[in-house]
Specification:
Blueprint lengths: L9 H10 L5 H11 L4 H12 L14 H19 L16 H11 L3 H8 L10 H11 L3 H8 L7 H6 L12 H6 L5 H9 L1
């Protein structure tokens, strides 16, 4: 209980009165009204609120439709499960898929390389760490995509070339990626093409 010598504010007095557990509200009213006669009216109203044991009428609640309630719970359970389901990795879209063989030959020519080297890039056979921003940016422009979209795709695991899939009786294993330097040396490029691609 607040001591008289403190002379607290009106709000402090009413709060202390409401939360105090000393006696009943009626008992507290007599003590507080004697200590703080200037707030007797507010204390009296607060006592009436605290001593009201029941409402005059029950709150108006509409009945719950059991089927609608179950449907809502099922919807919530599905949503919760979808939030816990791990997202599949590498959802990058293949920017090469929109181009046929003729289109890829044209892109390879415009990019300054041959079809074999372009195929290694397309099949993600080259380590993304070795490709510069200029390399990715120029190729992305020729493919009609963004640098970020192309980089996301190229960062994925290497793909087995279609020719290897058809020639093999068993499922071909994923090929380990090679460095850009290895790809330049083993793709039948001319010295001018190697120099150009290295300068991007």
């Amino acid at each position: 209980m607040i001591q008289e010598k403190e002379r607290p504010t009106r709000e402090d007095i009413l709060m202390d009165f409401a939360v105090s557990e000393e006696g009943t509200p009626a008992d507290r009213l007599e003590i507080y009204a004697r200590l703080y006669p200037e707030y007797e009216h507010e204390l009296n109203e607060l006592t009436q609120e605290l001593t009201a044991s029941t409402w005059d009428s029950e709150p108006d609640c509409s009945t719950v439709n059991a089927a609608a309630g179950m449907a809502a719970l099922e919807d919530f359970a599905r949503l919760e499960a979808s939030l816990r389901t791990p997202k599949p990795e590498n959802l990058a879209i293949d920017p090469f898929a929109a181009h046929d063989a003729r289109g890829l030959r044209s892109i390879a020519k415009a990019f300054g390389c041959n079809v074999l080297f372009m195929g290694r890039v397309k099949d993600r056979m080259i380590r993304i760490e070795d490709l510069t921003r200029g390399f990715i940016g120029k190729l992305a422009g020729l493919l009609g995509t963004t640098s970020d979209a192309l980089a996301d795709f190229l960062a994925g695991p290497s793909q087995v070339p279609a020719s290897a899939r058809f020639k093999s009786d068993t499922k071909p294993a994923t090929v380990e990626k090679q460095s850009l330097a290895e790809a330049l040396d083993t793709s039948g490029l001319t010295p001018e093409q190697k120099q150009h691609l290295s300068s991007l």
